[in-house]
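Folds abound. A case:
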Amino acid sequence: MTATSTQALRTRAVRTGGLSLRLDLRAFTVVVLLLVCALAASVVLIGTGDFPIPAGDVLKTLFGGGDPGQEFIVNELRLPRVLVGLLVGAALGLGGALFQSISRNPLGSPDVLGLSQGSTAGALVMIVLFSGSATAVTLGALVGGLVTGLAIYLLAWKQGVHGYRLVLVGIGVSAIVTAVNGYLITKADLVDAARAVVWMTGSLNGRDWTQVWPLLALCAVLLPLVLANARGLRMMEMGDDVSYALGVRVERVRLLLMVAAVLLTSAATAAAGPVGFVALTAPQLARRLTRSPGPNLVPSLCMGATLLVTADWASQRAFGADQLPVGVVTGVLGGVYLLWLLVTERKAARI
C-alpha cells in the first residue's frame, strides 16, 4: 500500500453545505484520548492532598452534590489550581507548536528562544526594583515577554524571518536576558530574592480564580484567531516562495501568529511562573502520536494540558512527603527529552 493510499484511509472528507473539511481520523482519535486523559488526571489531582477525596465524590461535588466541606475544598481550593494547570499547559503547548512551525525547527520553542526568560525578567523587575504586588508581577511578566518577542523578531528580520536565524537570535537573546535575571537577583534583598526564586521555579501552588479568568479569556480570543490562520501556517511549512504562490500573505500571517504565540507564552508564564519544557515537548509528542504533517495545533494544545496536570500530580505524589513545584518535574523530564532530541537530530544530520 502506498503512502498516498494510507493517507487517504486516515482522512475523511466532511461536507456541510458549501463547506468541505478534511478530518484526519488518527489525529481526531489522539485529541479525544488526550482530552480524556487530561480530564481524568484533573479529577485525580483535585482529589489529591492532605484531605483526600475519592474520584467519585469529586465528580459528585463538581456537579453540585457534595457536602459543604467537600464543596469548599474542591471548588475554592483545588479546582482553580487544576484549571490554571490545564490552561497554562494548553497555552504553552499551542505556543510551542506555533513557534516550531514558524521556525520549521523542533528546537524553536519559547524556552529556547528566550521568551520565558523575558517574561521572567519583567516579573523580576517588578519584584526586585518595585516590590510589586501579584498583579504588578503578572503585568511585568506579560510586558517582559512581549518586549523580548519584539526584540527577537526585529533582530531576526532580514528580508523576512527564517527558521534557523530566528532560533539563533533567540538563543543569543536568551543568554543576555538570563544574565540580566541573575544580576537582578544579586541586587535584591533577602525577602525579595526568596520571593523571586520561588516564582522562577514555576509552580501552581496558591493559584485561585483570579488567575483563571484572565488566562481563560485570552485563550478564548487567541485560539479561534490561530485556528483561522492554520491553513496559511501549514502552507508556510513548504517554504515562503510556495506559500506566496498559493496566495498566503506570509509575513502578515507569520507576524500575527508570532504575536499570538508570544501572548500565550507570556500569559502562561505570568500565571504559573516559567514552567520549563512543556512548550518544547508537547508539539513533538503530539506529532509523533498523530503521525501527521503540519503544525498539529489542537493535538499540541491537548498534549500540553495533559502533560502539565500529570506533572503536577507527580510533583505532589511521587516524592513522598516532599511536594515539589511542578516546574522542577517538567524541567527534569524536559531536559532528558531535549538531550534525546539533540542526539536524534544529530544522527539525522540536521544539526
In short: Strands lie at 11-16, 19-24. The mean pLDDT is 83. The first strand starts at residue 11 and ends at 16.
